[in-house]
Amino acid sequence: MDDNEAVDISEEVGKFAETYSAFNSVINKLQRQYLTLKETYSIQSEQLQAVNQTLQSLINKNGAVTDFLNSILHSILSGVIAVDETGQVTLLNPTACRLLGVSVFKPTGGRWHYDELFISELGKAHSAIHTMRSGESFDNAEKTIRTQDGRILLVTVCTSLLRNYKGEITGAVELIHDISKIRRMEDELSRMKILASLGEMAASVAHEIRNPLGGVSGFAALLARDLSNEPAKREMAEKIVAGVGSINHTIETLLDFARHESAHRTPIRAKEYLESIIETFADEYGYNGSGIRPINKIEIDSNVIVNLDAHLFKQAIYNLIKNGIESGHQDPTIVVGCHLIPDSGMLDLDCGNVALEIYVEDNGMGISDEDIKKIFSPFYSTKQNGTGLGLSIAWKIVKAHGGEIQATSQIGQGTKFSIFLPAKPGPIGG
Fold first, then answer.
1. Topology of domain 265-430, per CATH?
2. What Rg, from alpha-carbon coordinates, does the chain have?
3. pTM of the model
4. CATH number for the segment(s) 76-178
5. If pLDDT is split at 50, 70 and 90, which confidence band does 172 have?
6. Residue 268 and residue 307: Cα distance in Å, rounded?
7. d(C-alpha 34, C-alpha 203), whole Å
8. Most buried residue, 25, 40, 84, 310, by CB count within 10 Å?
9. CA pair distance 133, 171, nearest whole angstrom
């Protein structure tokens, strides 16, 4: 090997050493960058984990708030209806479903439109639809609605617009509260005050008339006896006696109306009790032989129990049957029936009780919508010779039993009186 070759190798070694040194420098730089990146990743990973924990905590809180709001919506005693800008219902809480007689979705599976929730609506301006379109909100406005299952409800309405986080209108919400029962109670309280005043007045007048009436009846009876040989005059005296008897019957009715009814109730099997009333009515009220006998449509089991004052409540049923017979039809047909019904909210039912409807239906001339509002008022009658007290007395007796009584009628088709009482579907003492 000569000197020139040795120089050439030395140069190659020098270049390699420089390249290796540069490579080590790059490697060291990469290692430092890797360590820096690893440290940055670790910090960012910890930060991301903290963010995830915060986000999960917010999700949990949001879920708790959602559950809380849903619990309020499910528990609130007011119906809640929310609609979007097209009128489609986006929310119906359970109370709204119960009040309106609908499910959350239509039977076909789609969402309701607001206008489909009601058969008819009086006071339609007070609605979520009107609020959404006009921007006008309502607070405790009243309106009357007819529900899908045919009930007529008086409700109060509160409405308000719904907005998103940008403040844009997305729909409206309506709160409805059924005040039908409250209004009935107010009307009944007013009616009871009037009845109490009229009763006191009627009792006073009846007693004042009754005393001299007894004398008139006695003298007329003696006169009829003494005129036994003068038939024409005796007939006039007998008419006086009969007229006095009729007046005395009216006075007895007045006194019955004025009496403060106190029901001494005991558990009674409703089926047996009502069947006995149907069987004995014709005999007790002189319709025997006339062909008039109430038709039995009692549709309950023999073990249904109702707490009644048997003697007092019988008078209410008799008054309703007599009213049907005197309703104007030449060939009166009277139906007496009863059945158990779902709780409609009219009665304050104890646990384990159900509602019993007892009805008396006739085929008479019917009662107009205007007259039917006054049908239970004392001294109000659509009959030529009616005292206007029979139905008032029936109303008082039903109220004394903690029940409700209603009348429905159609001109030319007859009238139906329905009594609603709490009952127990079990044995006496059970």
1. Heat Shock Protein 90 (3.30.565)
2. 42
3. 0.54
4. 3.30.450.20
5. very high
6. 6
7. 109
8. 84
9. 9
